[in-house]
Specification:
The protein is an alpha/beta fold and 427 residues long. It has 2 domains: 143 residues, Alpha-Beta Complex (Aspartate Aminotransferase, domain 1); 243 residues, Aspartate Aminotransferase, domain 2 (3-Layer(aba) Sandwich). Helix content is 35%, strand content 13%. Helix 1 runs antiparallel to helix 14 and helix 5 runs parallel beside helix 6.
């Protein structure tokens, strides 16, 4: 926190911070739901579902118009031709997660992509069968990992190692992760962790973990669902083998939005690497040669893990969102995120023992989320926040997740939220 943010906790001060921040202007690019009285809500749920960019309806309307006007000829004649529509996201997706354009593709959904990638990167053999992950894990990740182990004839009870925080602690120590990687190294096939833990908001040092996994002969993957569009990721430089993320959280691409995949370039140049195959993952030069039986020849890079042609109507919202990220830039958004989340931390500190933050205090170990335990009836507090127009996420039994998202949240939003948490009521 800077000295100016530690100034008196007044509404005027919060508004002054907003006025001085050039990135505050991006808030107007999003549709913020109204309260019953007409004023916009204070939306802190971008870690669950991001707000709609205002440009989405126009893009969707244009695609529908081109479909009605051109039908099949839209594959080449649409304003944004459908044939190579997916290539629109290579460069922007790469900038979002710190990758090379060839290392990123958008297809399907998060858990589907994790399964598709684990076909290649979870290859149990002999005694090397175990997977290490972090907890609390999102249930879908646990299901995916356990089912992959079972599919390969293993026993999830023995082969899935999900490390927990130490007794009395909220966050998993990286030293414990590193120790487990070392201890299980000879029987370890894969390490897969959250880029940001969905429950606690903890972020990991991916480079250090990747190096440790590789030193012990294991692959290293990341579920970046809560990290993409949140942290200034560097998946290529951190030497991550593979990653997957959804786009409906910080990516602001709509409910059930198309998901992203990352495959490090060293693997993207290995056509012999086992994978599930589909026609859109085939070499584009021969993709449409359908008059004879063909041998699958994977496209180079992450495109080689695609299965089907891109769903245009599902990808149009992502086009609108990534344009905003490109304009704002991830480094600048991350700096604003650190300021907003730091301001929230400082405001919560002023509430004393009324609240407990279970997210790490170090900005390098968290993203745009603080997970808060509130004394008393947490559900009742959540309801009070809702009544005051503050939309947050409640996770049983007693955690309220608050995500001050840098593209559309403000210091004033945070000021109002913490007034309510402090028992002052809405301004």
């Amino acid at each position: 926190m800077s000295d100016d943010q530690l100034a008196p906790a007044t509404l005027e001060h919060a508004r002054a911070l907003d006025a001085a921040d050039p990135l505050s202007r991006f808030r107007e690019r999003f549709a913020i739901p109204p309260r019953p009285g007409g004023d916009p809500v204070r939306y802190f749920c971008g870690n669950s579902l991001g707000l709609m960019p205002r440009g989405v309806p126009e893009l969707l309307a244009e695609e529908c118009e081109d479909w009605a006007r051109l039908a099949v000829n839209g594959h080449y004649g649409a304003r944004r031709p459908w044939f190579d529509y997916h290539t629109r996201f290579r460069d922007r997706g790469a900038r979002l997660v710190g990758a090379l354009p060839s290392e990123v593709c958008y297809q399907s959904t998060l858990t589907v992509n994790l399964h598709l990638l684990m076909v290649s990167f979870y290859r149990p053999e002999g005694s090397r069968r175990k997977i290490i992950g972090d907890t609390p894990a999102f249930p879908s990740d646990t299901y995916a990992l356990a089912s992959q182990i079972a599919f390969h004839g293993g026993d999830p009870e023995n082969d899935l190692i999900q490390l927990r925080p130490r007794e009395g602690e909220h966050d998993l120590r990286e030293e414990d992760l590193l120790r487990a990687i070392d201890e299980h190294g000879d029987e370890l096939a894969l390490v897969l962790v959250s880029g940001v833990n969905y429950y606690t908001g903890q972020a990991f040092d991916l480079r250090t973990l990747a190096r440790a996994a590789h030193d012990r002969g294991a692959c290293f993957g990341v579920d970046a669902a809560h990290a993409a569009g949140n942290l200034a990721l560097q998946l290529h430089d951190d030497d991550v083998d593979f990653a997957a993320w959804c786009s409906y959280k910080y990516g602001n691409a709509g409910p059930g939005a198309i998901a992203g995949s990352f495959v490090h370039e060293r693997h993207g140049r290995r056509p012999e690497l086992p994978r599930f195959a589909g026609w859109w993952g085939n070499d584009p030069a021969t993709r449409f040669q359908m008059n004879e039986v063909q041998r699958f020849e994977p496209a180079e890079g992450a495109d080689g893990w695609q299965l089907s042609n891109p769903p245009i109507l599902s990808m149009a919202p992502l086009d609108a969102s990534l344009a905003i990220f490109d304009e704002a830039t991830m480094p600048a958004l991350r700096e604003r995120s650190v300021r907003l989340t730091g301001y929230l931390q400082e405001r919560l500190d002023r509430l004393g023992d009324r609240v407990e933050v279970i997210t790490p205090r170090d900005p390098e170990r968290r993203g745009a989320q603080l997970s808060i335990r509130v004394k008393g009836d947490t559900r009742a507090v959540r309801d009070q926040l809702e009544e005051a127009g503050c939309v947050c996420d409640f996770r049983p039994p007693d955690v309220i997740r608050v995500a001050p998202t840098p593209l559309y949240n403000t210091f004033e939003d945070i000021h109002e939220l913490t007034r309510v948490l402090g028992g002052e009521g809405a301004a």
